[in-house]
Amino acid sequence: MANEIKEALEGNDVEAKIEAMKNAIMLLLNGETIPQLFITIIRYVLPSEDHTVQKLLLLYLEIIDKTDSRGKVLPEMILICQNLRNNLQHPNEYIRAVTLRFLCRLNEPEIIEPLIPSILQNLEHRHPFVRRNAVLAVMSVYRLPGGDHLLVDAPEIVEKFLSAEQDLSSKRNAFLMLFNCAQDRAVSYLFTHIDRINEWGEQLQMLVLELIRKVCRASKDEKGKYIKIIISLLSAPSTAVNYECAGTLVSLSSAPTAVKAAASTYCQLLLSQSDNNVKLIVLDRLSELKALYREIMVELIMDVLRALSSPNLDVKRKTLDIVLDLITHRNVDEVVLMLKKEVVKTQSGEHEKNGEYRQMLVQAIHTCAVKFPEVASTVVHLLMDFLGDTNVASATDVAVFVREIIETNPKLRVSIITRLLDTFYQIRASRVCACALWIIGEYCLSLSEVESGIATIKQCLGELPFFTPSEDGEGQEAQKTSQPVNSATVSSRRPVVLADGTYATQSAVLETAMSPPTVVQGSLASNGNLRSLILSGDFFLGAVVACTLTKLVLRLEEVQPSKTEVNKTTTQALLILVSMLQLGQSSVLPQPIDNDSHERIVLCIRLLCNTGDDIRKIWLQACRESFLKMLADKQRRETEEIKAKAKISYAQPDDLIDFYHLKSRKGMSQLELEDAVQDDLKRATGEFIKDGDDANRLNRIFQLTGFSDPVYAEAYVTVHHYDIVLDVTVINRTKQTLQNLCLELATMGDLKLVERPQNYTLAPESSKQIKANIKVSSTETGVIFGNIVYETKNVNDRNVIVLNDIHIDIMDYISPATCADTAFRSMWAEFEWENKVAVNTVIQDEREFLDHIIKSTNMKCLSPPSALEGECGFLAANLYAKSIFGEDALVNLSVEKQADGKLSGYIRIRSKTQGIALSLGDKITLKQKGAA
Asked: Where is the Coatomer beta subunit C-terminal domain positioned along the sequence (predicted)?
């Protein structure tokens, strides 16, 4: 391969030279040295005038080793210096610029020193492309070890250059040089030209913000004068500058004026940007501000709500989540009015996901109405129009909302019942019908309401019986074989096809067999929603209908003075219940009635035939009392969660007390005064105390090699959302210099190494900090493995030390979250990946085992505490968590206490992705025995 490259380089074909240079560079990057090519490249490539060849030549020179084993520059490198000097004086600006950029990557002062006059000369070149790279080259030279002696007056030269320069990119690079090498000069230039800062370009303004952050971290007392600059940059035309300004302002100041300005900027970006990713990022920033400065964000709630105009559902969902935490008595009316308008817009049907968006709006309105019952009257009737919505989830949410509002707002009971009875026939979903029937049975109290409720149910059930039974057993057998056939079509053809007497007997048998399906199909098409659902085999709904009719009849006995009317209604109700039982036990439907529904309907029949006072009390009072307990328990859990979220912080007894009122206020702006007050408040409440504990940091350190290895290495792992940073400490424990020491890493799972760490030379018994960045793309337990490779003077072969694996824990990516029971069941049925883990633990208490699993998996228990109380020997609970990538993790824990005191059962994990299901299963298997 090397000979082929050499022949191509010696030829005159430019395209062949380009390809050969690319191959040579690839060989170098893969670890090959190929020293025999150097002289060939100097002879045949160096004189080339082709720009691509020259660029590849510089890449080649950047990669090759320029020093020997003692760290001295190789003699042949002197051959390059003259070529670099010629390039720096080349008439073509591209050659000059790429050469200057190459010099930024050189670390050998011996090569750079003779080129310094040419570098400085390029600061005055006519083309800005050359000048901006010349400034970067000056900065690179000045930052080399001993570079301040090579270019003693570099800061002064660059400052003069900055004052006279007009090109924005060149000014930005010059300011960057002062920022990194002479910070005082950068600050002086900033305040000298502070009046013209809004005229500077976006890149330079971003650099100014970075400078402000750096200066204020070092000296917090001076941040007052810099905050004025930040506020002036909030009106810059660049949205990137606006975003950075807002973030910088919040990081430096907690004054209400500053926070409000930052929040207003975020709201403007939220409306002006069309990219949904940008909107989501801005909403994250607003969510952070909401957690820290809720009172200020309350004033901007309507500005945040305007983000609902985005067509993206994720943006809408996150916007509603933020707004619902900011609702107060002052703004709830405006918020609900806005949500009502959005609900009306979803009826247009322009977008495919209107049903899902409507469901989110219904849930938001539900939350508002629960917190502030006075607004319920303005929304409940509008939402009841959606009880018959084709989106079953949305209609179910409306029904649940109506059920809670009718209990918590007694003044609305009559109007809700009237509206519900008027619109009941529109409901098509079984779950919504069941909820609506429960409301009718519990809250129809007056005589007119009870009679209307019974009449509505009878109308939706249609005429009785539900089917016409066959006259003989042969016909019943024919029914079973002819179920899929459309009975109405068959019956219309038979008089034509079977007109002659030959088939008259067979015709009679078939007609008898097909007659029951004919009645069923005709009834299903011509009657109400309840009849259609029951004839489809939904006998659970039939049991709900039976219970509702029973409650209404029992209440009718209390409010109806006429015993005749009561007996008549009771008889009609019994006829309906018996007809449902007859339908369930017949062979008309593919599946017979289930045992639970059959038992429930039979119980209702017995109750209507013989009513006792105790039974009447249970049916008419105890059910609603249980519902009230459920609402009270839900409210109590929400209150406990709010209290748990409240940050409890304490001030230390020996903290320094700074008396703000004794300070001199001379020259302080209103913003600085507010900031001083906020700082005092934070000190008083202990907010400046960091949560991080040094002991916890030690848990993130992984030993990579053994203590007896010639090279000791350990890594401190930092996981931050999508990034993993490895801070590896490498120690040379030998008495000799280690050359070309390289940390080679590889990953397994959805992890990706961002860049390959470079080679280092490690002196005897010295250490080196090496950083490695890894990107994460999904919630999965990943593995980082690799080795350390190095060379010594005495051994020609490369030495390899294999490192211990680093397992990235899934717990770093998931956090406890909440979701509604209906949403949990929906996701449980939808998710395809399930991991089933058998319970194997030394813990003998069910509740203790549940708490241990919750702590080990960083999940939240959705089952209410009331459902986990008692000592029955069984425990079932649902756990839920959400990852930073938006993935849902569902866990169902079911355990039973055996006779010997041990626990048995299963833990089921379900997720949309395989990785999270397997990783959580491994974690639970590891932790469930009760070990810490």
From this structure: 653-791
